[in-house]
Amino acid sequence: MSQHGPELRNDLLLRALCSQPTPRTPLWMMRQAGRYLPEYRATRARAGSFLNLCMNPELACEVTLQPLARFRLDAAILFSDILTIPHAMNLGLEFEAGEGPTLARPVRTAADVRNLPVPHPETELKYVLDAVSLIRRELAGSVPLIGFAGSPWTVATYCVEGGGSKTFARIKSMLYGEPELLHLLLAKLTRATIDYLSAQVEAGAQALMVFDTWGGALTPSAYREFSLRYLSEIAAGVRREAGGRRVPLVLFTKGAGPLLSELARAGGDAVGVDWTTDLGDARRMAGPGIAVQGNLDPSVLYAPPAAIRAEVERVLASFGHGHGHVFNLGHGIHPDVPPEHALAMVEAVHELSPRYHD
Ligand code: CP3
Questions:
Q1: Distance from the CA of 100 to the center of ligand 1, in angstroms?
Q2: Which mutation among 59, 65, 82 tests ligand 1's pocket best, with the greatest number of atoms within 8 A of CB?
Q3: pTM (2 d.p.)
Q4: Which of 84, 108, 148, 205 has its CA 20 to 30 A from that of 198?
Q5: What is the torsion angle, in degrees rounded to the nearest 10, for the CA atoms of residue 176, residue 232, residue 26 and residue 21?
Q6: What is the domain partition of the chain in residue ranges?
Q7: Assigned fold of 12-357
Q8: Residue nearest to atom 20 of ligand 1 (CA)
Q9: 77 lines ligand 1 (CB under 6 A)
Q10: What span, in angstroms and rounded, lies between the C-alpha atoms of 209 and 201?
Q11: Which position among 41, 44, 105, 229 bears the catalytic label?
């Protein structure tokens, strides 16, 4: 028994993320606990809102486990959101139904940035850590638990824009007009993220992922200066070991494209890959010793099972023979996908992937 319960029975994800051999390709799905599942919608209705669901450890644990009851997945991912940090910074987070997140008190001026508190995970984010320990207990060693956070750049886009954005007008004005101010904000978010992820590991997270959903909106040089640099700081600062075992770290920049080779050198164990990069190219850009996670186009799951199976085969074949691949979608599963189509993908990976391993 480790501090958080029995030893892991299925450690394929941890091995693959550390580029070690596995008998088949492990898999999980980004946003695997979500609106495409009727049982998720039922629990969210009981919680009253998405934020209540995130902040209630019992309900967060319940929805975390729902996709594992349906599908043969090799990991659980903490049910939470990347905006828990701005919420803890008291920026007034709300999720209006069908609207996406908004922040009532966005960060716009030098005074706003200076006054921004760096949250203490053990107090302001205790509900997340409680969910992590509860999920670990309920998983009872079946599969590993992934903890996560947003990248400083991606979280900053929400903090400055006050919600989602298409043009990133406000944060890009800051980036080009007041770069030092943006660096101050990113440094605070980086500090908060390192503390938050390390606390998740302390509470029982066995792998970590950083979501840089909006890094692909930057020019290559701005990406290096305003996103990649802070991803490297996180990789260097975060806790990477627990109970005598490595806690692998996945860095995911959506739309990284050719910059994937630089992301792979940022200090993570693995890189996440979206569907716009061929997985064989991603493998070459990552180089030996850095695993890749991805990259089925989530829209493939709109197609019938036979087409899904063919696309799964295409992804496995583009990675090719050998270890260091974790199968996933290239981004989150769409809310209007039939669960049986997700099942077809999962079963196809189980059936088709062993032949790519010795
Ligand atoms: O993968 C999982 O199953 C874990 C859960 C998870 C959620 N958000 C739950 C969620 C994870 C890993 C996230 C990360 C997240 N949140 C990201 C990065 C990953 C990505 O998808 O790019 C971002 C950008 C956010 C911010 C966010 N949260 C947005 C823009 C939205 C609204 C859009 C949407 O999909 O509804 C959310 C809400 C959200 N986060 C939902 C879920 C299940 C939907 C809320 C609901 O209506 O129930």
A1: 9
A2: 82
A3: 0.97
A4: 108
A5: 140
A6: 12-357
A7: TIM Barrel (3.20.20)
A8: 213
A9: yes
A10: 12
A11: 44
